[in-house]
TrEMBL record, chains A, B:
This is Cytochrome P460 family protein. It comes from the Bacteria. Residues 1-33 form the signal peptide. Keywords: Signal. It holds the Pfam family Cytochrome_P460. InterPro entries: Cytochrome_P460, Cytochrome_P460_sp. Residues 47-183 form the Cytochrome P460 domain.
Amino acid sequence: MQIKKAMSTSINSNTIASLVFLSAGLLSANANAEEFFTIKDGELQRPTGYREWVYVGTPVTPNDMNNGKAAFPEHHNVYIDPKSWAHWKETGEFRDGTIIMKELVSVGSKAAVSGNGYFQGEFIGLEATIKSKKHNPNEPGNWSYYSFSTPDHDALTEVAKPFPAASCNACHQSAAADDFVFTQYYPVLRAGKGTGEEAAGGFTSTLK
Amino acid sequence: MQIKKAMSTSINSNTIASLVFLSAGLLSANANAEEFFTIKDGELQRPTGYREWVYVGTPVTPNDMNNGKAAFPEHHNVYIDPKSWAHWKETGEFRDGTIIMKELVSVGSKAAVSGNGYFQGEFIGLEATIKSKKHNPNEPGNWSYYSFSTPDHDALTEVAKPFPAASCNACHQSAAADDFVFTQYYPVLRAGKGTGEEAAGGFTSTLK
């Protein structure tokens, strides 16, 4: 009651305006976060929270399908940050400031009650790609590529320097379907390209 | 200015209290949504927006690894609703009201610049499982199972009746690692069981 009384004496339209502004700010704070990554002294700080971003697809290229010498002998769970996903749904383009994470997961099992196949095992690494005019003014498509995986894949580094452009971008430039991203293998991105709300799944009876 | 003046004359502490309450309500509306599904006349309405929930893992059990007759000849992208994910992170348990979605994706390609493997093609179906004492009082673990896939996998139904318990739960009861859920194949759930913030990825240098 003491507080209520104090408030009632000092209240005015500016206070209301401030509260409304504050509320709007709180509501949209996450949506308005410009970027979901931090680059400091040329190094990308290891991103956090990406398992709560939007998942787009998982390729698996196991050793036993590549003569025991797969270049990427794991499942790759791929995520895009939520603001870039919102932009993709709206426009069908990767915004400046997009970050895509690739979490590496070992082949854990090849047989289950559901049949023979490839089942996900343990986390063994983490990679990222970023589209940024500011940080990558001279890279093709403004994309840069990073890995936080240690050589023996038993830990993650705190920061990562970008790979030399050619080591990643040669494949991405020649083979990726959409702006250096392999959307042909990511059904969530492919179906969601510029489709608005429907991109999030289940809104129509057609399969898209 | 007209509006501001009108506001300043009628403002009082109750108005402020209402605005603050409204703001708090808006901020927590999503977090407080009790369930992410609707069951009407015993049928589950097709859920929407699940591609923006939390992804937990993808098994693939293709025909060519199962004598051409796989029981589930696709990739299965599996998601959990955000409130049940929050509960899982906090407690390591599936809350009453959990919904887990399984989006079926065809094998789209078996070779890419990254090597031979299994790459995701097109969406071909949608399934769900729900843990609910209210709706499934007599089912093992209170789980029920649904499919929105049409027989030829070229569309989705609007609603789904639950499968007879035995048709799904026999395998889930005997082989699933944690409360009828195959967490052994879902690294995000396994790593995130009761681990709080760390469950979302990237917070520590250890791989979990």
